[in-house]
Write a structure and sequence with these properties.
Elements (H helix, E strand, L loop, with lengths): L1 E2 L1 H8 L4 H10 L2 E3 H8 L6 H13 L1 E3 L3 H13 L4 H12 L4 E2 L14 E2 L8 H4 L4
Parallel strand pairs: 1-4, 2-3, 4-5
Helix pairs in contact: 1-2, 1-3, 5-6
Family: Belongs to the PINc/VapC protein family.
Keywords: Hydrolase, Magnesium, Metal-binding, Nuclease
Organism: Methanocalculus chunghsingensis
Length: 132
C-alpha cells in the first residue's frame, strides 16, 4: 500500500494512535512526493521533524521514475488535478499498490486505482484486509 501525505500528517497527531499502529504493521510505501510535501512543510517543529524522519526511515520511498511521470501526465490530461496528486496516483498505479488516503474524492475517478480511507467508519477494510 502507498500512504498519501495526508495520512502521514494525521498519523502524527496523538489522537490517531490506531492509525500509527496499523502503519507500523504494514511497512508502507510512500512516494518521493510525500517525502517532500510532509518533511518540507515550513512550520514543522523539531519534535515533529524527528518523528517524520523516523517514519520515512522505516518506509520504502518510491522514486518518481519515467513510468510514474508518464502516468501522471496521462492522468492530468484526463482531468484537472494537482501535480502532487497526479504523481502519487501515478506511483500507486505503476507499482500496483493500493492508495491509502483521506482525500478519496481527489482520486475516485481513476478506474484502476484501489483506494482505502482509514477514516471511513462504514468500512472495516483498513483493519481487516490484506494490506499489501
Amino acid at each position: 500500500m502507498l500512504i498519501d501525505s495526508n495520512i502521514i500528517i494525521y498519523a502524527m497527531k496523538p489522537e490517531h494512535e490506531e492509525l500509527r499502529l496499523i502503519i507500523d504493521k504494514t511497512a508502507p510505501y510512500v512516494s518521493a512526493v510525500s517525502y517532500v510535501e510532509v518533511l518540507g512543510y515550513h512550520k514543522l517543529k523539531e519534535d515533529e521533524k524527528h518523528c517524520i524522519r523516523d517514519f520515512f526511515r522505516a518506509s520504502l520511498i518510491l522514486p518518481i521514475s519515467q513510468k510514474v511521470q508518464d502516468k501522471a501526465v496521462f492522468l492530468r490530461q484526463q482531468r484537472r488535478m494537482t501535480l502532487g496528486d497526479a504523481l502519487i496516483a501515478g506511483t500507486a498505479l505503476v507499482f500496483d499498490l493500493k492508495l491509502v488516503t483521506r482525500n478519496i474524492g481527489d482520486f475516485q475517478w481513476i478506474d484502476d486505482l484501489t483506494l482505502i480511507n482509514p477514516f471511513d467508519e462504514s468500512s472495516n477494510t483498513w483493519q481487516s484486509m490484506d494490506l499489501d
